[in-house]
Design goal:
Layout (H helix, E strand, L loop, with lengths): L2 E10 L2 E11 L4 E5 L6 H8 L7 E4 L7 E4 L11 H7 L8 H14 L15 H14 L4 E5 L7 H15 L4 E6 L2 H7 L2 E6 L2 E6 L5
Parallel strand pairs: 3-7, 3-8, 5-6, 6-7
Antiparallel strand pairs: 1-2, 1-4, 8-9
Helix pairs in contact: 2-4, 3-4
Length: 210
C-alpha cells in the first residue's frame, strides 16, 4: 500500500521538528528515510505508528493490521529461543501448530539463521537479532514493514547483507520503510529515498537521481 504524507508539521515545546513536509513511500517498494540525527526521521515514523498524535497535516491512516513495526530500541524477549521469537509472529495466524513450525523453519532458513534456532535470543549478535525480528515481522504477514535504525551498531558488511535481504522482501509486494542515517548504503540498495534535513524534505525519488 502507498503511504502518503501531506503538509505535515510537528512542534515540540515550540521547536519545529517537521516543517510542512510532503512525501510518499510507494507500494511494494523498499524505501529509506535518511538524514542526520535530529532531522525528524524517527518522529515521522512515530506519527505513522500513532505513537505521536499531535501534528498538522495529513498522513495515510495505517491500521494495526496493516503494518509491522521494528523500533530502534527493542528489549530482548527474556528466556525465549530464536525459534520461539519467530513463532510468536504467528500469534494471530489461523494456522495449526504443525504449519507454524514449518513456516518458522522456512523463515529461519531463508535468513540464514536456522543454525541459531535453539539459541537464546539474548545471546546472539545484533545483526542476527535484526534478522530474527525481520522473520518475526514476515510471520505477521502484513503489507507494510516499518523499521527504525535497525542496524546502527552493526558492521558495514552485515548491514549490506541485511539490505540485500530487504530487497527480496519488497519483491513480495510489501512496502518497506527503513529509517537510517547511513546514506551511502541506502543509496546502494533502496528503490526509493526520502532525505530529511532539519525537518524539511531535501530530496525524494530514486537514489540514483540524488
Amino acid at each position: 500500500m502507498n503511504i502518503d504524507i501531506n503538509n505535515l508539521s510537528v512542534l515540540f515545546d515550540d521547536q519545529i521538528i517537521l516543517n510542512n513536509i510532503s512525501c510518499h513511500f510507494p507500494d511494494g517498494k523498499f524505501s529509506c528515510l535518511v538524514g542526520e540525527n535530529g532531522s525528524g526521521k524517527s518522529t515521522l515514523l512515530r506519527i505513522l505508528t500513532k505513537d505521536i498524535d499531535k501534528f498538522q497535516g495529513s498522513i495515510t491512516d495505517l491500521k494495526s493490521d496493516d503494518y509491522s513495526y521494528i523500533p530502534q530500541n527493542i528489549d530482548d524477549p527474556e528466556f525465549l529461543s530464536v525459534k520461539e521469537v519467530v513463532e510468536l509472529g504467528f500469534y494471530q495466524s489461523k494456522m495449526n501448530g504443525k504449519n507454524i513450525t514449518l513456516q518458522s523453519h522456512q523463515l529461519l532458513k531463508r535468513f540464514d539463521i536456522e543454525n541459531l534456532k535453539s539459541r537464546r535470543f539474548s545471546e546472539i549478535s545484533m545483526g542476527q537479532k535484526q534478522r530474527v525480528w525481520l522473520a518475526f515481522a514476515l510471520a505477521q504477514d502484513k503489507k507494510v514493514i516499518l523499521m527504525d535504525e535497525p542496524l546502527a551498531s552493526v558492521d558495514i558488511q552485515s548491514r549490506k547483507n541485511f539490505y540485500s535481504i530487504l530487497n527480496t522482501v519488497s519483491q513480495e509486494d510489501r512496502t518497506l520503510v527503513l529509517v537510517t542515517h547511513d546514506l551511502e548504503i541506502a543509496m546502494e540498495f533502496c528503490e526509493h529515498m526520502v532525505h530529511l534535513h532539519q525537518g524539511a524534505i531535501s530530496f525524494e525519488g530514486p537514489p540514483k537521481t540524488f
